[in-house]
Sequence to fold (646 residues):
Amino acid sequence: MRKITFAQATLEATAEEMRRDSRVFVLGEDIARQGGIFGQFKGLAQEFGHDRIMDTPISETAIIGASVGAAMAGMRPVADMHFADFMGVAMDELFNQMAKIRYMFGGQTTVPMVVRAPDGLASSAAAQHSQSIEAWFMNIPGIKVVAPSNPADAKGLLKSAIRDDNPVIYFENKILYKESGEVPEGEYLTPIGKAKVVKEGKDITIISYSIGMKDAYIVAEILEDKGIEAEIVDLRTLVPYDKETILESVKKTNRLAIIHEAVKQGGAGAEIAAFVAENAIEYLDAPIMRFGAPFVPVPFSPPLEKAYRLNSKKIAKDILVNFNY
Amino acid sequence: MFKYSKDLLKTFYYKMYKIRRFEETVEKYFLDGEIPGFIHLYIGEEAIATGVCTLLDKNDYIASTHRGHGHTIAKGADLNRVMAEIFGKKTGSCKGKGGSMHIADFSVGMLGANGVVGGGYNLAAGAALAIKKQKRDNVSVVFFGDGASNRGTFHEAMNLASVWKLPLIFVCENNQWASTTPYRTSTSVEDISLRAIGYNMERKIVDGNDVFDVYEGFKEALNYVKSGKGPYFIEAKTYRIKGHFVGDPELYRTKEEVQKVFRENDPIKRFEEKVLGENLLDEVELKEIKDRVEIEIEEALKFAFESEYPEPHELYEDLYV
Fold:
């Protein structure tokens, strides 16, 4: 199968959906003339023109607010947030308007829009350009949240997000943009709400998503050397998350570790751990383990950033201790 | 004055009087404990929604505020369903999920009141963007108060509308009170519309208690915007007769101040004096309209009272498509 990068996969998805549906348009900072800071919009303005690939003022509030308004009036906007961190600027529009409009107006309208949110640690970008904030949006009913880990899912999930009649936040990790992977030719969709068991195993379930999946694979390899067969679940969608796949896997392996780059406290892992504890605690042979960032802002200096980041070897070591429980 | 047809004059009176009586009715039933939540009344500002919405059709959009009953009614929403919504009934326009602060009727282009002050500008800008992309001959209108013009959203939307030449009309209802704070103590300019200059936008100040002046000013705005020149800013000077919300003790102003304004500048009284004084409509014609409104209000009340509350299972409906 052909290999393309994550960024190219999102480009293909956008172009295909824009060709398919004239209501789809993209708006954001530095996307038309520059092609996006990570090249994820490169060439789109040439094909679709500046009316459909729109450079905006530096006004995140207006970008999200106008997307909501356009969506209510029959369009299907895709709004780029430049960095996920800047969603804070538009938070009222995201959680009081976008998320609630359908419900509080009694289903009179739909809000079919996608918010693209490049996230994660990269190149010492420090506290305000490095965060993973997906957990915030797991606490706000009315939004769907996806976080692909590879080019194939990046394409399939973005296409599904654009076609979804609900608002979808699409977290795309900045390091993953450059990574290549196999992507099928032609039309396909990755369903929102379905996790994927990417490696089967019988001894422990490792759940992750987005950039955390890289650590999940490394950890599984280390465990393999110690004779432990890990099952890896790529969650892919955080809202609504795939409860059946999680329970099925945990009931089989009887152990659970959850890995994400975001802050551990109050993170996605906390929700999943609580869900498993509520519904399958009798299947567990050991405490659930969560791995995430420490409870500090992202630091600048490279050694500090490294200390903040997930450490596969340390995760594997902690999991091995868990097996002595 | 002769340029106004009798039908148009009757429409003005009908809309203004209907809003007034709706608000008085809602106030009464709120104080009686029949209506839950919070209520913000539009009394004294009826000429603005009426002057503006009379010039719009259902394919034009409006974004409203927490003080949104007047806009909703003027835009032509079904009165029964609006009343039922405010009572929290399942037959309400939002099935009882929105209430007074989130009243909406998409079937007439009313894109919703907003519980967040200043929440409507960018939604209206987006709706205007959609109109432009769809090459429709419509406009989008955002109503907001003087207090809301101090939100950052105001400035982002003004700039966006201007640089993208959106078919968007900003209608500032300067009622002089930002909740309980006099706007002059919290706002850098006397005329909010001065801020339009900074965004390279045309502007006009109208007497918000004179439906004719609002109508004429808005017509000018509409012609300008429909010619593709970009957004327009209308500032309607008015005064909030009632408290910020029903039950507001109004410790920040005297009763005399309010009564003086209402005595001298009630938009409905001014309209009556004008049309009667200039023999444009007679007492009988006004009475007919009033009677018709009373019947509609009675019917809406009956509908609201007789409607059921939502069932608990409806809690989970209408979240996702």
Remarks:
- The first strand of chain B starts at residue 61 and ends at 63.
